[in-house]
Amino acid sequence: MDSTGLSLEQLDALQELTNIGASHAATALSHLLKARVVLNVPSVQIVPFQKINTVVGDPSSLIVAVYLKVFGDSPGKALFLFDYENALRIAETLNTPCGEDLYRDEMALSALKEVGNILLGSFLTALARLTRLKLSFSVPAIAVDMAGAILDAVMLDGEYLDDWVFIDTKFSGNQVEGTLAFLPDSGTLNNLLGALGL
Question: Residue 152 belongs to a domain with what CATH number?
Fold first, then answer.
């Protein structure tokens, strides 16, 4: 048992669950982009509230984020985070090139939002099937801003947590690099663990 209250067995089970869910998301992205997408080994981190804005790198870096609220038996928040330059490349791959300015290009933002929606939806659907929990999620939102500002906004959209379970999965390939994160709300992690028999 570590300082987070989770045993090594529980952390391993969460990591395996995340690996399967992220594999489904990578397959969906590969089909969408018609290109090979590599799934790096997911990690499950327990991150103090005060340090959550450091988990994606430099808080001042410009990123594109797709955000969903998760409802049901294990509510929380799910995000897919694109590096800004990579978001431009994905938009071009999807035949919605936008030059260097994503802020004003509704078509490019809509395409990126759909990419994030497919990734997050595939991930969450796989989690629901594996655990037999009932999960649903909101219509996606998209934002272009500094990483720290986006994560601060996500943290304010819900209850205050001392520690967040940050399930972090990275994808890479010729067309895409990004991070998928699932943040269970306070108290709901036990529902995931219980569904795994832990």
Answer: 3.40.1550.10
